[in-house]
Amino acid sequence: MHKIAPLIATAALVLAGCASTSVPVSIADTTAKTPSLSTLNKLIGDAGLTDTLRGAGPYTVFAPTDEAFKAVPAKTLESLAQDKEQLKAVLMYHVVPGKVVAADIKSGKTKTAQGADVVVAKAGGFVTVEEALVTQADVPASNGVVHVIDRVLIPPKR
What we know:
By secondary structure, this protein is of the alpha+beta class. It is 35% helix and 25% strand.
């Protein structure tokens, strides 16, 4: 019996380690728990997109950092804050239906959830979307993947 007790204790530690392994959460929850995406997370809530980005997906989200939002003119941000539909359009321009990890990105145009195309490109280990550089690729989410980018994408006027 004395030989079994250490085995049970070891097994309990191994199982406890498994329980603390990070399980991917939804895209909305991923942005909420990422400090550098707090502005994006707030805007997702303001636009009423939290439930969408917690939905089944899958989605690929190009997520601008707080620093990226600081580079957007204040007048543009004020305008978006006052026009929920325009805010929603800008945010959905950062979303591509389907799950596309960096290794699978093919250079060319791809349609966004907003309806317009964005140009994605891959050169070596670098991935860009429009003029934005992916600074952190392949952040896993239960309903897709997040790629952190260094600029805010503004859709073309229709």
